[in-house]
Specification:
This protein is of the alpha+beta class. It is built from 13 helices and ten strands. A five-stranded antiparallel sheet has the order 1-2-3-5-4, with helices on one face. The model has no long low-confidence stretch (mean pLDDT 97). The structure holds adenosine-5'-diphosphate, 2-acetamido-2-deoxy-1-O-phosphono-alpha-D-glucopyranose and magnesium ion (MG).
Length: 370
């Protein structure tokens, strides 16, 4: 993979930032794209910042389709927010086109780059340090779901085919185990066994969808806490970011991925598994807040399946980390050897916790059924 820094000077020239660029440095904790913050120095005010991203070529095969989705969604959200009297520049992302007028810039080595204004006065959290913070993220993701309720889903490209198709993730995992191209299966026999014992679970949501029980909606599909920017003063969810995977999906995906990442007090790659525990209070807090954000629009069946969302998104993510470990860390950025295996282990610990507390999870969500 070509280092993003290699073409950075060329890319900075390709966009009009409205003032001289004084620097661009790596930014954030995303696992997928190469993200930079660009500092500019306007004459009449202090620094203005932008987010510059090289879209991951491993994840996104069609940056043109990806950007068409994002432009459609950000413009639609912008209108919705203005109609509700909101602040468009802080509550919705906005794409800044390159000087050549295209939706994004392709550098001389084929890398695809985009620019967004930096949403100032916000904080991006890596962990739900307080229940209030987690609740605010739940309201924001629920509201996002609500705002996109009438978005023409048929116009969206599938930016990553089979993204939350857990059956497909399982099949890819089995193929990676079978190939064992780096001889790594010997290091993770318990984890492989953990997945194989849960083969039937991988079909739970898809079966319900195929049976017509769960509707497809426009979903975000990557609702980690660090994909919502919180207002630094009020602490409320201000702007939902990382729109790369907005596609038709099940509501339980958005609920579940937030629980996976936020309803515990450890890092995703924590190596001391005694620190990795599902926090039932945080689960309850998020459930209430997410449903509040959706404005009561979910069906009883969708609510009933929320615990499955938590378990499936966590199991699936663990399967994805493990598969990536087995094939040589091609997809998720790593900063140390074995990081994807460590990430997988935290996910499976959380899945096991969810299974232990399954009845409590069901009781919590059942409070919200009509
Ligand atoms: P990835 O897909 O790699 O996770 P993200 O789009 O989530 O990439 O961006 C990575 C990080 O950059 C975010 O977690 C957030 O900290 C920061 N970020 C992204 N967009 C903005 C923005 N418009 N304003 C401020 N910070 C942003
Ligand atoms: C990735 O892009 P980021 O870092 O917000 C991944 C998610 C995983 C998550 C695990 C496009 O999210 O699906 O759940 O890592 N995004 C993509 O932390 O694959
Ligand atoms: Mg992200």
């Amino acid at each position: 993979m070509v280092q993003a820094e290699q073409t950075l000077p060329e890319v900075l020239q390709a966009f009009d930032f409205g003032a001289p660029v004084v620097g661009a440095i790596r930014y954030g904790h995303g696992h997928i794209n190469d993200t930079f913050v660009v500092h500019t120095q306007p004459e009449d005010r202090c620094c203005r910042r932008f987010i510059l991203q090289r879209m991951s070529a491993a994840a996104f095969k069609h940056p043109d389709q990806l950007m068409e989705n994002i432009i459609g969604i950000t413009e639609y959200l912008g209108k919705q927010i203005l109609e509700r009297g909101g602040d468009r520049s802080r509550e919705a992302m906005e794409v800044i086109r390159p000087k050549n007028g295209a939706d994004y810039y392709t550098d001389s080595l084929g890398g695809a780059w985009r620019v967004y204004p930096f949403v100032e006065g916000t904080v991006c959290h890596q962990a739900a340090d307080t229940p209030e913070l987690f609740a605010a993220s739940g309201r924001a993701f629920g509201r996002f779901q609500q705002l996109l309720r009438d978005y023409p889903a048929g116009t969206l490209y599938e930016t990553i085919p089979h993204f939350h198709d857990t059956e497909d993730r399982l099949a890819k995992f089995k193929a990676a185990v079978e190939a064992d191209k780096l001889g790594r299966t010997k290091d993770c026999q318990p984890e492989i066994g953990f997945v194989l014992a849960r083969e039937a679970d991988c079909s739970a949501a898809l079966d319900a969808m195929r049976a017509g029980k769960l509707p497809l909606r426009v979903t975000h599909n990557d609702t980690k806490l660090n994909n919502v920017l919180m207002d630094e003063k009020s602490g409320e969810g201000m702007c939902i970011i990382d729109l790369d995977t907005v596609m038709p999906g099940l509501v339980l995906y958005d609920f579940g991925d937030s629980i996976r990442f936020g309803a515990n007090h450890s890092a995703e790659d924590e190596t001391d598994l005694s620190k990795v525990n599902l926090d039932l209070d945080l689960f309850a807090v998020y459930t209430a807040a997410f449903l509040e954000g959706t404005g009561g629009s979910l069906t009883n069946a969708e609510i009933e399946y929320l615990p499955w969302g938590a378990k499936l998104m966590t199991l699936e993510c663990g399967i994805r980390f493990l598969t990536d470990y087995l094939v040589g860390d091609e997809y998720f950025h790593i900063s140390r050897e074995g990081q994807n295996l460590d990430r997988c282990r935290t996910q499976f610990k959380l899945v096991a916790d969810m299974e232990t507390h399954w009845k409590e999870l069901e009781d919590i969500v059942n409070q919200y059924r009509r």
